[in-house]
Amino acid sequence: MMQPSEGGERRPRTRGRPSIATAEEIDREILRAAKEQFFQHGYERTSMSMIVKSAGVSKTTLYARYATKVELFLATVQDAHQGVEEIAAALVSSRDMGLEEGLIAFGLQLHKIGAEVNWKEFERLIFAEGPHFPELYKAVALRMDEGVEAISEYIMHCATREGIACRDPRKPAAMYLYALRGFYNWQMLNGQRATHEEAAEFFRNLVDTLISSRADW
């Protein structure tokens, strides 16, 4: 099978496949290099060739995994949100926490891992180049939709367990996540990271506000 290059020429793939462990290591290195280049040079000025050089892989290897720069950027966003998905899954499967406690705990866990995945750099990239590249907005919107679905599932689970009617759990779930996103954007714009105590206060106030309108859900 032939693989396209950035200039449109066709190149044959090399024979043989790496082991699973080696393939996973290659994937991690490609995503690391892609994020590094996107953050340093921006989406528009980053080329697949730059990522190939930074990752130390061949173009054949890169294009075998990601046919376009858009696909690769989507993969970096998904990789950055992997921890979020794990937290959301743990929250949904939890049987011990109530709604208020669970939503506060979810927010604090996101705050904890936020620095590790460098969401601030993603936000800067989206703000700077999103207007010119709609695919960047679409990538973030997709992850937000998945987050809303996970939180709405937890809200419905709590409502069912507590015997409380809930007509549309997606509405409070969306409000919760949009407020959370605004909290992180505020930190980015102010060039500072909230302390654990500040984050805890924010999430308590946010959840209290949401719960106060629970009868309308």
From TrEMBL:
Keyword Transcription regulation: yes
Region (Disordered) residue spans: 1-22
PANTHER family documented for this protein: HTH-TYPE TRANSCRIPTIONAL REGULATOR BETI, HTH-TYPE TRANSCRIPTIONAL REGULATOR RUTR
Database matches in Pfam families: TetR_C_7, TetR_N
Keyword field contains DNA-binding: yes
Keywords on record: DNA-binding, Transcription, Transcription regulation
GO molecular function: DNA-binding transcription factor activity; transcription cis-regulatory region binding
Organism taxonomic ancestry: Bacteria, Pseudomonadati, Pseudomonadota, Alphaproteobacteria, Sphingomonadales
Every HTH tetR-type domain range: 24-84
DNA-binding region location: 47-66
PROSITE patterns to which the protein is assigned, alphabetical: HTH_TETR_2 (PS50977)
Protein name: AcrR family transcriptional regulator
Matches recorded under SUPFAM superfamilies: Homeodomain-like, Tetracyclin repressor-like, C-terminal domain
